[in-house]
Amino acid sequence: MSLKSKVLVVDDEAFSRRFLETVLVEEGYACRTLDTAGAFWEHLEHEEAPDLVLLDVRLPDGSGLDILESLQERETVFPVIIITAYGSISDAVRAMKLGAFDFFSKPFEETHKIKVSIKNALEQNRLLDENRRLKSRLYDRAVFEKIIGESGSMQAVFELVAKAARVNANILIEGESGTGKELVAEAVHRLSDRRDAPFIPLNCAALPETLLESTLFGYERGAFTGAGKATHGFFEEAHHGTLLLDEIGETPLAVQAKILRAVEEGTIYRVGSTKPIRIDTRLVFATNKDLSLEAAEGRFRRDLYFRIHIIKISLPPLRERPGDLPLLVNHFLEKYCREAGIPRKKLDPGALDFLLRQRWPGNVRELKNFIERIVALHSEERVTRESIALYGENPIKPAGDALLEGEYDQARQGFEKAYFENLMRHAGGDPNLAAELSGVHLATIYRKLKALGVKRK
After folding, report:
1. Are 278 and 239 in contact (CB under 8 A)?
2. Angle at CA 183, nearest 5°, toward 182 and 185?
């Protein structure tokens, strides 16, 4: 420990500096000496933080006690031992109240006690640092506990998330529907220094343009019919926190222009107002589209695209990480059986093989819904291949030439009805999931269900 420990001595008396440096070097510590408060602050700004500071109370350009108080406010992690003039007991008492580890009095008469105090301070700092690292690792694991995966591709995602959380750059998360984009965005937030502020997710595809704009930017009283009072938008609600704009590729171009201003200038305008509002919001964007293609074909602003994908996190579909599927199945089985208060169900090897052979176009979300369905409907503890197949959804297979018979409009309507009936069963009656699985806009889903007389459940 001692060979790696760096001790900083701050004292304006040359004799004290030489004495302490001699003691420290003899004990095997790396030592650096300074003689002013200004030199100390400059050292902290430009050099690696020390493991211990020996700080004199009286300095030519400031007070060591004031320095100690400032260090406590900054929540610095290294211990401080105060050096006081002989008889300055009041200074020593104040130093201990401010969090000093110990104090020495000049002249230095008991070298052994000085060595012991320095050793104890460094040992305490080592233990505290080890504890901080342990807590950090435990916290990181807790953050990622909702994102299941041990495959190489998912480990790369975890590593990139941890790196992205340490900076404030814009993030673009790409991945098919159901791959866990919101969970990844939340992990970025919880690992960042914004974790104590709000994390607000918004699905941009779920709102029409007029409502999306007021939801994002807020509005002033009287801005439109029903606007009875000024209201914050999500940009303001996420101030100092993180705002996830999911399905950003579905955002109308007019709204994209206003999002671009928020990204570039850090300001927004409420609907009905000309007064800019400063915001400090971490922005994370998510999409299941190829935004570079969307931008090239004019459906997405190129300038916004280049501004939002400073860091890009690409989530692999479930079919590309089959090794993670058993982990996910076990996780969801345990979760839903525990929530239902029933014994944990067990899958036969044939049942697991059946799951591994599926394509899972809805990715982890589809698998989760499927396992939840089994837990809810399968009465036996043992789940076989034959029984698990009963809860799956077969693809639409028109019977031979039947699809080719009759009028075209009738055949098309028959196909659409069969398709949307199967789609809603597959989505468990959830129109939002049906939209994600099919790539059909949510408004179109509702319109087709009504026109075709398809029940949601």
Report:
1. no
2. 65
- Cβ atoms within 10 Å of 310's Cβ, excluding its own: 13
Considering only the C-alpha atoms of the chain, give the largest distance between any 2 of them, rounded to a whole number of Å. 108
Domains of the chain: 6-135 (3.40.50.2300), 153-316 (3.40.50.300), 319-389 (1.10.8.60), 400-452 (1.10.10)
- 356 phi, psi to nearest 5 deg: -65, -25
CA distance 140 to 190: 9
Q: pLDDT tens per residue, the chain (457 residues)?
A: 445 789 999 999 999 999 999 999 998 999 999 999 999 999 988 888 899 999 998 899 988 899 998 888 877 778 999 988 765 677 778 888 888 898 888 888 788 889 999 999 998 888 777 666 655 444 455 677 788 888 999 999 999 998 999 899 999 999 999 999 999 999 999 999 999 999 999 999 888 888 999 999 999 998 888 888 889 999 999 999 999 999 999 999 999 999 999 999 999 999 999 999 999 999 999 999 999 999 999 999 999 999 998 999 999 999 999 999 999 999 999 999 999 999 999 999 999 998 998 889 899 999 999 999 999 988 899 999 888 887 765 433 444 444 555 556 666 777 788 888 888 877 778 888 888 778 788 888 888 888 888 877 6
Tokens of 215: 């939801």
pTM exceeds 0.85:
no
- Which single residue is written with the structure tokens 């999911």? 246
Residue 59 in tokens: 């300095």
Q: How far apart are CA 246 and CA 181, in angstroms?
A: 8
* Location of structure tokens 């400059």: 42
- Rounded CA-CA distance 63/85 in Å is 13
Are residues 286 and 246 in contact, defined by beta-carbon separation less than 8 angstroms? yes
Q: What is the chain's Cα-based Rg?
A: 31
